[in-house]
Amino acid sequence: MSEDTPGRVDKPEGVKLTEALAAWLTQSVPGFAGPGRLTKFAFGQSNPTYHLSAASGDYVLRRKPLGPLLPKAHMIEREFRVLQALEGSDVPVPKVFAYCEDTSILGAAFYVMRFVEGRIFYDQRLPGVLAEERQRIFDAMNDAVARLHRRSPADLGLADFGRSQGFVKRQVELWTRQYRASEGTTILPMESLIEWLPRNLPAEQPGRIFHGDLRLDNMIFHPTEARVVALLDWELSTLGDPIADFAYHTMVWRIPPDLFRGFAGLDFDALGIPTEAQYLERYCARVGLSELPNWHFYLAFSLFRLAAIVQGVWRRAQDGQASSADAMTVGAKAAPLAAIGWDIAQGGS
């Protein structure tokens, strides 16, 4: 992987593999041969991720954080399973090799996958990219998401990967619990959304693979082409409502650039970025829908969910378990994100 900004790794020199890890890799990853080194990527608030360089090639190692974890968080075992299932489909994913539950190796469970060459864009406004190229990148991103949501879970052997019935209701309950487990000072818009969301649940949608975090920076693009070659970060994946998945992906159109690298208020024509309506229209055409019903609910819930997630980042920083140096700054964004979600809920559009 490569990126559009410097500082990809915390320690460019890396560290040598321990004897235990080297032995496990040799036994579990086909063709692996040492010596090897681990270099931690600087990105990622949730599961620490490492570039594993070895004599046999380049890999990525992804592990759970150390210490106590929130319930149903950091579930990389599910991530590993869905990546295995999608291998060979038209959904772009990296090949995974092996999963390790033995915490004596690295202190937490982990898995190893193929290192995918390409570009990762961390600023969704794509600074330094020509407007024409932005158009192609956004269309490729839209296409990758639609490919995922078109796939039948049963056809991929994932019929038991989750319960799609009652999905949104359970998600509202889940992220309310996650927020309660991490909350500090009372955030009034979060309290309002906690009351409003259960009373405005949308009708059930056909269950599809729900990625859970379809951000631009969770996609690797071809080194020179506007084409997604890998969707990353599947720890939240399950079976669920694809509109909820797409809304979380699309909520950046409602977030100001100075808050969370959003698009609100930008000159879309000048930048070559589609409007929210244009982006929704392309997605609907690709998945065979005429519209996305109850869109304001899905957006409000997406902002609520993101606020709960960054509140969890804040809590981990308070507890000394943060995996990134800017965790406190990220965690402070919970309140303004919740305020946007509550405005959407009140406005109904």
Question: Summarize this, please?
Answer:
The chain is α+β, with helices and mostly antiparallel strands and 349 residues long.
The protein's oligomeric status is single chain
Helix content range: 40-55%
The third-level CATH topology of the largest domain is: Aminoglycoside 3'-phosphotransferase, Chain: A, domain 2
Low-confidence parts: 1-12
Quick tags:
single chain, 349 residues, alpha+beta, Phosphorylase Kinase, domain 1, Aminoglycoside 3'-phosphotransferase, Chain: A, domain 2, 2 domains, 6-stranded antiparallel beta sheet, two-stranded parallel ribbon, globular, disordered N terminus
Summarize the structure in words.
The structure is a single chain. The protein is of the alpha+beta class and 349 residues long. It folds into two domains: 2-114, Phosphorylase Kinase, domain 1, CATH 3.30.200; 120-347, Aminoglycoside 3'-phosphotransferase, Chain: A, domain 2 (Alpha-Beta Complex). It has 13 helices and twelve strands. It has helices spanning 19-28, 76-86, 103-106, 131-150, 167-182, 188-196, 242-250, 257-260, 268-271, 276-287, 295-318, 327-331, 334-347, and strands spanning 2-3, 15-16, 36-40, 49-54, 57-63, 96-100, 110-114, 119-120, 208-210, 219-221, 228-231, 238-240. The strands form four sheets. Strands 2-3-4-5-7-6 form a six-stranded antiparallel beta sheet. Strands 1-8 form a two-stranded parallel sheet. Helix 11 (295-318) runs antiparallel to helix 13 (334-347).
